[in-house]
Amino acid sequence: MRRDTPPRPDVLGELPSLRRYARALTRNDEDAEDLVHDALVRAYERRSSYDERRNLRTWLFSILHNVFVDGRRAAASRATRDERAMMGAPAHADPEQEHVRWRGRGSPG
Questions:
Q1: CA angle 12, 17, 23 (to 5 degrees)
Q2: Can you give the pLDDT at residue 89?
Q3: Region Disordered: which residues (predicted)?
Q4: How many domains does the chain have?
Q5: Rounded CA separation 66/69 (Å)
């Protein structure tokens, strides 16, 4: 190793802290592991944006937090979409009524 080469960031050394923070956010060990994994994947994908003058721990924690928030937003959006879909769809429709309903929408038939 050359002396003028900066030391490689110690991502593995940050794993215990990342896991603790992820468990605090998710309140579930399995979800926490998934969150850490997703955060590390995102960090790897965006490794070119890491500035070595910046604190690695802060950068990783920011990514972990953002992945968590993104996941919560996506889940809320899915729930809203599912709720709206359920409100617009009948629980059980007579097949003949389905035919009439589809015809009204401009389907061939």
A1: 120
A2: 59
A3: 80-109
A4: 1
A5: 5
Tell me if 52 is assigned to some domain. yes
Domain presence at residue 1:
no
Asked whether residue 80 carries a pLDDT value surpassing 60, the answer given is: yes
pTM: predicted TM-score of the whole model, two decimal places: 0.69
Tokens of 3: 């002396």
Separation of alpha carbons 98 and 101, rounded Å:
5
Output 50 or 93, whichever has higher pLDDT.
50
Query: Domain of 55?
Result: 11-104
The CATH number of the domain where 91 resides is what? 1.10.1740.10
CA distance 19 to 33: 7
Is 74 inside a domain boundary? Answer: yes
d(C-alpha 65, C-alpha 94), whole Å: 48
